[in-house]
């Protein structure tokens, strides 16, 4: 856990709390440690020398949970599968942005999600999940984790509290509920999971089974800039850092931030599985964190203009943009209560898959590609790409239409994006 007892981990000045966007420039790093370099160098090393045999032994005892009296609180640098200076600075800053106690970074978003779920669940237990989820997560929970004795029960992301309680009762009938896993807003339909309901459900399940389940939230769509699940009761927040936090479509990474108790289990499994992140990618993410707030705010402004254009276009049946949710509706009230931005990724529906393909093939500025949260606008047809592995009947139950298109607006001039969509929609 990051300790605010060193000058380079200072969080306030004369009673003034420093904001995350300021802390991303320097928190967790002291130039004195690296020849006065303003930016951390890249530590391309597999292993680290110990000051003594005793130090090495103590570090490994701490890492393996076998600490003895007199051992340090945290292991020093040992081996880059466990820790590395670039990794430690990145984890400090991500934890700070999320308001978490600790953070672990991983080789991909799915590495973060799979390590988190396998670290917190166990054979014979049940994951209570909202649906829809990102296609890879959906397939992991439904198709692969049952091979390890981990079952699941789902509830629709937009369900009311009584429906979610019914799903919880079904899960409890199958076994111990170890994890409540949610993604909000959902990918790609932008449905809202009520995290306040989930937090109350954690307490209810604890009373019924005598053990508290972990609440895990995938916050990739809105990021730490637009939503703070830790403040809403989450134990762990997971990200595909590839998306907004990385933000330049040039790296693959993931993270999990959360409570010390939950992260101890996740960190331990990461060490055994080797799903850690390499130093160079950690360094690239440190660069990206310096501008994540600026990029996400600029993209959100452009997204609103694009969404308004699509809403008024005769060939577009529906626009699933968070900024259009009305106060007084279930989704509108949930959005207002737990989010501070509508983000820049949303879906819209055309008449058919064929119409969607014709429109996508006619685009000239936007990039026809999977992923989201980059500086450039990315657009795709999820039903045939990112969510292809999800059963078609399940997709239909989740609210997919054949002509659903996902767009992640970048930081280009939105007028240019609108011109591109206008000419492409002629072909739909």
UniProtKB/TrEMBL annotation:
Gene assigned in the entry: mdeA
Protein name: Methionine gamma-lyase
Keywords: Pyridoxal phosphate
Keyword 4Fe-4S: no
Keyword ATP-binding found: no
Top-rank lineage group of the source organism: Bacteria
Cofactor list: pyridoxal 5'-phosphate
GO CC term (a single one): cytoplasm
Residues where N6-(pyridoxal phosphate)lysine is found: 243
Family indicated by similarity: Belongs to the trans-sulfuration enzymes family.
Alphabetical list of NCBIfam families matching this protein: PRK07049.1
